[in-house]
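Quick one, probably user error.
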C-alpha cells in the first residue's frame, strides 16, 4: 500500500472515531471509579465487589467448573 492508494479522508474518519471512543472509554472508566469510591465510602469492600462483577460476567457452567477445580486444588494442598 502506498500513499497514492490511501483515502486520507476515510482514514482520518476512522482515526477520529477511534479517538472519540477512547475519550468515551476514559469517561466511563472514571464513572466506574466514582461508583466504587462511593460504595467504599458506604462501607462496602471494593475488592470483593470487583470480584463479584467479574464472576457475574462469566458463563455459569465455566464458573462452576473453575470453582470445582479450585476446590480440588485447595483440597490437594491441604487448604480448606
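Nope, works fine. Designed sequence:
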Amino acid at each position: 500500500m502506498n500513499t497514492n492508494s490511501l483515502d486520507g479522508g476515510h482514514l482520518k474518519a476512522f482515526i477520529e472515531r477511534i479517538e472519540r471512543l477512547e475519550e468515551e472509554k476514559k469517561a466511563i472508566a472514571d464513572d466506574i471509579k466514582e461508583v466504587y469510591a462511593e460504595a467504599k465510602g458506604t462501607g462496602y469492600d471494593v475488592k470483593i465487589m470487583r470480584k463479584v462483577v467479574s464472576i457475574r460476567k462469566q458463563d455459569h457452567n465455566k464458573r462452576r467448573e473453575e470453582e470445582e477445580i479450585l476446590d480440588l486444588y485447595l483440597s490437594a494442598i491441604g487448604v480448606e
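The chain has a mean pLDDT of 94.
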